[in-house]
Amino acid sequence: MSKSLLCPCEDVTSSEVEHAISKGFCDIESVKRFTGFGTGMCQGKQCLNAVARLLEEKSPKKPTPAQLMPFTPRPPLFPTEYGYWASASFDPERAPSGGVPAGIELGPDSLRPAGPVKSKAKIVIIGGGIMGLALAWNLTEQGETDVVVIEKGYLCAGASGRNGGGIRAQWGTPTLISLAQRSIELMKRFARDMSINVWFRQGGYLFLAKSDEVVKKIERGAALHNQHGVPTQIITADAAREIVPQLTMKGVRAAAWNPKDAVIFPWPFMWGYAQQAQKRGVQVETFTDVKGFELSSGKITKVITDRGEIACETVVLAAGAWSPEIAKLAGVHLPNEPHRHEICSSEPLKPFLGPLVSVLDSGLYFSQSMRGEIVGGMGDPREGAALNLGSTSRFLTRYSQALTEQLPQTGRVKILRQWSGPYDVTPDNSPILGKTPKLENLLQMSGFVGHGFMMAPAVAERMAKWMATGESDELFERFTLSRFAEGRMEREDMIIG
Ligand SMILES: Cc1cc2nc3c(=O)[nH]c(=O)nc-3n(C[C@H](O)[C@H](O)[C@H](O)COP(=O)(O)OP(=O)(O)OC[C@H]3O[C@@H](n4cnc5c(N)ncnc54)[C@H](O)[C@@H]3O)c2cc1C
Hints:
Elements lengths: L4 E3 L4 E2 H9 L5 H8 L12 H11 L21 E2 H5 L13 E2 L18 E7 L3 H12 L5 E4 L15 E2 L6 H15 L1 H5 L10 E5 L2 H16 L5 E3 L1 H7 L10 E5 L3 E2 L3 H13 L3 E3 L4 E7 L2 E7 L2 E10 L5 H7 L7 E10 L9 E4 L4 E5 L5 E4 L10 E2 L3 H14 L7 E12 L6 E5 L2 E8 L5 H18 L5 H4 L3 H5 L11
Helix pairs in contact: 1-3, 5-10, 5-13, 6-13
Bound molecules: flavin-adenine dinucleotide (FAD).
């Protein structure tokens, strides 16, 4: 094992890069995702060439120029202080501009499997995000292993690889509270069960309320939480400052505090579910695009991909914000709308911030990762519906103003990078699950807005059981697509971001 550091910012050694190459990550972009190299203060300036050289020396096949392309630069161009952005101005009336269509790049050749997909499988899952992969693994727990997961990009390409990693049981409906409680249990033991570290940290969630209306909302929420075994307390601004002494609490009238909520690092969940499912026979086909369906007598008989067709009995649509465009290929209309949400991360700091803090009135949220970074975001009410990615200086300004108002010490801290991902928003902020009217072997698993990561372990566990045993489960009867036509909304209002 060589301990020589290739990436001094993130402590990535040459052995770790060689390990990534041996696992098949044979291009700069994927080695970065696997090892974290190039994500620190220098943003790859010191280590990129050394990693490219190792790739040339150690890859089983000589890398193509595309594989050695420096990774996508993330704005800001160089590390810039929150204080700098907070001092800028933005037009609150204007809609955010700037972005790129959220098409998933097919990526370097090395990761795109060469041959065709298998021609037949019992279950095809479309989408290799947390939903699709968690479901695949849970199906194997139920004895179903003839399963193929089709993913257009790499495993963290969608919202699952772009989110804030917040995990909370503080929800506005009993169903989401109990799903989150179960997910927290499963996430706590995920590292042990799946042999992969997920940096689970139970530092709590602290919701700050500035207006009477929001104070009433958290009070109602706490009463509901307590009825369902979640120990949320409503506390004063002074008591909240005892939990995070650095907070100014400017304008804050009360706070909701649940010490059992948590944060995690999202990526290893995808890798863990995928690896363990593959060990049991599931095929996970990355860089494979679903192009259409063959239908006969009110059923999907084949899923058509750019690597061939798969005859199947059941199809699960778990493609997050991309689900409506895929459903359309089968003649099905989904009411989900994609909304870009921007997020950013700072240079690492000594641990000081226990909970994830969120100002409910504005949607500001921030937490400290186990690597010390402040990771946070804030939704923009002016952001229209579109499958749009990309980053804006407007976001950095709005977010930095809101962050430094509550945490002025961060004024001199530098933002290292920003990115965005799509919220998959439904008319009532609740997911779409279960059967599709007139196409019963197409099962829905989308519409998780900005909270699908924390719901996935529990929802996938129940969905796999429901699929494999045929036992009824109210989740897949209440949250169906047909509820919109029937005027049965399942409204959830504890949405942040
Ligand atoms: C900025 C941000 C912050 C968030 N913060 C949190 C948080 O703190 N906690 C939380 O629980 N949730 C959070 N979320 C929400 C969470 O990330 C999502 O709800 C969740 O990841 C959705 O998972 P998914 O598997 O449904 O979708 P995705 O992860 O988007 O996966 C869908 C996959 O389908 C693939 N796909 C698309 N088209 C095709 C095709 N034609 N063929 C094959 N595959 C295709 C995509 O490439 C993608 O990988 C956040 C989201 C964002 C954007």
